[in-house]
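Dear colleague,

Following up on Tuesday's group meeting, I ran the structure prediction for the two-component complex that the binding team flagged. I've pasted the input sequences exactly as they went in, so you can double-check that nothing got truncated or mislabelled along the way. The structure tokens for the whole assembly follow below. Feel free to forward this to whoever is handling the docking comparison.

Inputs:
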Amino acid sequence: MKTFVFRNQTVEAFMGYDGVTYSGYDDISLVPDDVDRYIWFYQVPVNADTAQLAQEIDSYGDKLDLVLESVDKAKPFIVLSLVNLFPLRFTGDDTSVERAVNGFNAHVAQLASENSCVKMVDFADFTARYDASTLVNWKYYLMSQTLLNPKLAKDFQAWWQRAQEELELKRKKCLVLDLDNTLWGGVLGEEGVDGIHLGGDYPGKAFSYWQRALLQLSRNGVILAICSKNNMSDVDEVWEHNPHVVLKREHFAAMRINWQDKATNIDELARELNIGLDSMVFIDDNPAERELIRQRLPQVEVPEFPDKPYQLMPFFKMLVDKYFRVYTVTAEDRNKTEQYRANAQRRAEQARFADLDDYLYSLDIAIDVIPADEHNVPRIAQMTQKTNQFNLTTRRYTDADVTQFVGRGWRIYCMSVSDRFGDNGITGTIFLRPVDDETVAIDTLLLSCRILGKGIEEAFFKTVLNLMRLDGYRRVQALYIPTTKNAQTADFYDRMGMTCVATGDDGSRRYEMPLQHVFEIKNCYNIRVL
Amino acid sequence: MNLQDRVLDIMRETFGIDEVSTDVSQKNCDQWDSLRHLTLASELEDAFDIELEPEEIAEMTDFSRVIAMLESKL
């Protein structure tokens, strides 16, 4: 990936050299177009004339606007916020520089909300970790025009790496929590429903704050689950009778409250939720349990747990920063716990029906097929980044890529699925690239694993191909690229009646099929094309 | 590890190249540019727990001068 950095100071030691080129100092006259993305990383200059400095900072916003007018909006444009590393004030009431800095940052936030290619990264998230004397190294500043201390370069690179992962929406999916001395203080089986520390004064207050914070984490799309050695009836009693409990049964997507070993339990939780062990983080106050999981399930992240309840909030912040923060979450993310719970109910329901079709009818499945638009592009891109199992080509795309494809005439659809247990939201997408007037090629086809097992993939695929046929296409091409995780899709195109025409050394397979007839779709789905 | 080997290691890391020999200088090494020169100084300060003055940093233009500077400090 080729990156171009707009800058007004020497930032090479921080942004690196490989594949990165730099503007002149505060020079926007050259905006290269042969790069894949742009970064704007300006520093507040050193100038004792605060009025002049404020004016200069004000000009950065205008320059950024000018640059944005001339770049390709399909390419990511990452702007780091401004931080005044050397605040100098002659009078207490002179806030001109602060106002200019805040003004620039507010302007960038506005640009980011209006342009999907613009992403804002909060530089203060990095600088807040250091005191003023560490942040600035005057010796190096005067030798090389870099106010930010070059000795922080390695720390910066680690932080910048994580910031970029956030932009790519990479994060862990599920937090698995122990109960005793983890979600509340004390041991429930010994101290009883009213004996545990939760609510009221310290230490109960610390656990209340922690539970409220975890609730907000789940509202930001992280699934919570429980893995605890306890009696289910005791825990039920806490949920029913302890007035201070914040996290109740409905906030957990799945739970294992029993006396089985925790490695087996967590393995089962991963299967039940249909997520990988490598997307789980396990929290337990007991070092023996943590060690067991580290040894038996090395893919699961197992952070140390704080010794004192008053350390829970900084611990929580560490968890968010390290595992869970992403640039943005979608409406689908926010309802995730509900969706995963509804799924568990569906599976219970399935057991009641002998015949799959009877079961499907009973679900009242509604499928909306929706063309890509500005509202659903972030979700579509997110699915290409995160979906591993039912993903025929596993090609990862950004918002900007998807927008670019639509601009080039690709037909991109997503689908929203609901049934009588709840709304799953947008959970599948297909990218069709026109090859010529009569031929269309499937670049990407994926479904979120939480809606699999109901024949929806087939209904979606056939609906979209029927649309292509109506549009005059006479032939469809497709590609399957094997990965370590998508084995279940290996024969999907064979099952859909396509013919394999070529096989690659990597096990990939090319398919073709004429679009002569309308595909029949089972009438247990209520399909709408929007 | 002796002083020379440690410095060679730091240079390899800083310049991002596999081969650095004891006759390396700013003249014969493209990667040893003015920017990486400062990174090198900063790395040497951290590795040997010393402070280098700007004038001293300016003098360290080849491997033997770097070694001489470090020896005078250690």
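Chain B is about 60% helix and 0% strand.

Cheers,
M.
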